[in-house]
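Q: Given only this backbone (153 positions), what sequence would you predict?
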């Protein structure tokens, strides 16, 4: 399987997850891969819509991590950078996020954003003082390397 085929399969799975929600993927919205490394085909009735598509860049020995990030009420992050791209989907709550060179932006459940590699992530904060915010994050990095780098002011 080539990197392009692998990325295509990952993109189809991510698109299905974002379009149908985690329960649809867990229930088998994608058929098993066909022989020869082709993309998994959606089952009848499954709708796939591409929400975002960005190049991964030249990352040696790439590794994809899928994580959930739960931010406590009122919590915020410190400035940092990521060595690879970040794809995030807001599962619950409401956050404010700012990645250079863009101004701060508010995201709510169902929204998503892309963060390019090595762009300063100035801040992310949970806008609720009473409820956590939860994000589903796909991050691409070089295997074995630290993903987040603090920014010194």
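A: Predicted residues:
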């Amino acid at each position: 399987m080539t990197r392009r085929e692998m990325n295509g399969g990952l993109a189809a799975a991510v698109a299905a997850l974002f379009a149908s929600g985690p329960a649809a993927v867990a229930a088998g919205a994608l058929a098993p891969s066909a022989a020869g490394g082709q993309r998994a085909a959606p089952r009848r009735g499954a709708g796939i819509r591409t929400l975002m598509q960005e190049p991964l860049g030249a990352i040696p020995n790439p590794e994809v991590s899928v994580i959930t990030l739960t931010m406590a009420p009122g919590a915020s992050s410190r400035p940092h950078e990521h060595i690879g791209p970040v794809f995030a989907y807001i599962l619950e709550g409401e956050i404010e996020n700012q990645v250079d060179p863009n101004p701060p932006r508010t995201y709510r459940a169902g929204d998503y954003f892309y963060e390019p590699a090595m762009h300063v992530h100035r801040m992310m904060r949970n806008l609720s003082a009473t409820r956590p915010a939860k994000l589903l994050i796909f991050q691409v990095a070089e295997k074995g390397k630290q993903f987040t780098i603090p920014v010194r002011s």
